[in-house]
From TrEMBL, chains A, B:
<keyword id="KW-0238">DNA-binding</keyword>
<dbReference type="InterPro" id="IPR001647">
    <property type="entry name" value="HTH_TetR"/>
</dbReference>
<dbReference type="InterPro" id="IPR054129">
    <property type="entry name" value="DesT_TetR_C"/>
</dbReference>
<keyword id="KW-0805">Transcription regulation</keyword>
<dbReference type="InterPro" id="IPR009057">
    <property type="entry name" value="Homeodomain-like_sf"/>
</dbReference>
<keyword id="KW-0804">Transcription</keyword>
<dbReference type="Pfam" id="PF00440">
    <property type="entry name" value="TetR_N"/>
</dbReference>
<dbReference type="InterPro" id="IPR050109">
    <property type="entry name" value="HTH-type_TetR-like_transc_reg"/>
</dbReference>
<protein>
    <submittedName>
        <fullName>TetR/AcrR family transcriptional regulator</fullName>
    </submittedName>
</protein>
<feature type="DNA-binding region" description="H-T-H motif">
    <location>
        <begin position="27"/>
        <end position="46"/>
    </location>
</feature>
<dbReference type="InterPro" id="IPR023772">
    <property type="entry name" value="DNA-bd_HTH_TetR-type_CS"/>
</dbReference>
<feature type="domain" description="HTH tetR-type">
    <location>
        <begin position="4"/>
        <end position="64"/>
    </location>
</feature>
<dbReference type="Pfam" id="PF21943">
    <property type="entry name" value="TetR_C_46"/>
</dbReference>
Length: 222, 222
């Protein structure tokens, strides 16, 4: 194998191991053994476990960010629901590694790690703005979108801890949460209210998750 | 000063400094100077900066958890709003230290630090359950409450980054968010819906933040 090919293979093996168990528990010996090479050879390609971890995290981050891409077609709620499904696929595939990372994993405090996490959050934020068709959001809207992204992260972490609620239900719930949080902000702020009425004016009353939410809330309130 | 008195004084001085600037930037020399003692004397009471940081964080955590206590009287939304005000007071007083800690501060990965953060989250969770009058919550309700607590944290962090939205507005918004997130879950799950109808049946339609929210949402939708 060439140098780059070997590096990519090692990253793949490491990502697999770091995803399935807490990265703290994965040794370089184990990675070497899974890759079928010697421990010194691993160190030839990566100076230490942290650099291999960061490379694996970079691949996982790129993978996750790519799952946020969604055609600009159909009801907004349905688009968001498809993204939520792909997000939970990712969380499901990388459960223990995702938990360890987000709860303060082995490379916490590493500026590379923090920058990767932030880049994924930023990718999610940019995608949402693009789907809303908004380039320069007011501060209140930025806050709602970013805080919803963090709600998605924390909901996924809570789900991983025991999986006591079916993930399909949480995927729908998070889409509904987005609509509810935007509505709460829009109800408090006129500018945001007007903006959101414009964005959502073409949403179908039925046939999309946001329509379903409104129907259910009305029935709950009655 | 006696040993314990001196320790408490040092913790107070350190907390003040760790709150106003990122703890990474605060040196033992500076703490010694602010406390009016020598650097070696600081080390006599605390083996290093981490142990002093942890002691300061313990005091801040106890302070924050105590602010969650609220009499079981009046509309639930109003109780929650008073707690949100005290929470933002705390965030305001400890801004840079709070940000540094929650974004992965100097003592991240320290099990003491993580345990303190978790204990504050647990105190918030326990208080909310007590106010709802629920002892053994269904998994879906636990998830909503815990994810709302994390929404509060992330909203406070986003607020600290530029303070572009008045905090009073965010305090109300977070109370509304709580109502909205619970309603979204309750709309999806019959058991939770029935539970929430029982909890909220005595809430006033006006006069509380939840009533205001419903009024505003209805006006927004029309």
């Amino acid at each position: 194998m060439g140098v780059e090919e070997r590096r990519q293979q090692l990253i793949g093996v490491a990502l697999e191991l770091f995803s399935r168990r807490s990265p703290d528990e994965v040794s370089i010996d184990e990675i070497a053994s899974a890759a079928g090479i010697s421990r010194p050879l691993v160190y030839h390609y990566f100076p230490g476990k942290l650099s291999l971890y960061e490379a694996a995290l970079k691949r996982a981050s790129d993978d996750l960010a790519s799952r946020f891409t969604e055609p600009h077609e159909g009801p907004l709620g349905s688009r968001l629901l498809r993204v939520m499904r792909r997000f939970f696929d990712f969380v499901d595939e990388h459960g223990p590694g995702f938990s360890a990372l987000m709860r303060g994993g082995p490379a916490v405090g590493s500026s590379t790690t923090n920058a990767l996490i932030d880049s994924v959050r930023q990718a999610a934020y940019d995608q949402i703005l693009a789907h809303l068709g908004i380039e320069d959001p007011p501060a209140r809207l930025e806050l709602v979108i970013r805080s919803w992204i963090s709600l998605v992260e924390s909901t996924a972490l809570l789900w991983l801890d025991g999986r006591r609620v079916p993930r399909a239900e949480l995927e729908v719930q998070l889409v509904h949460d987005f609509g509810a949080l935007v509505a709460v902000s829009a109800a408090q702020d006129e500018e945001l209210g007007a903006l959101m009425r414009r964005v959502f004016k073409d949403e179908p009353g039925d046939g999309g998750p946001f329509g379903t939410l409104v129907t259910r809330l009305v029935s709950l309130a009655s």
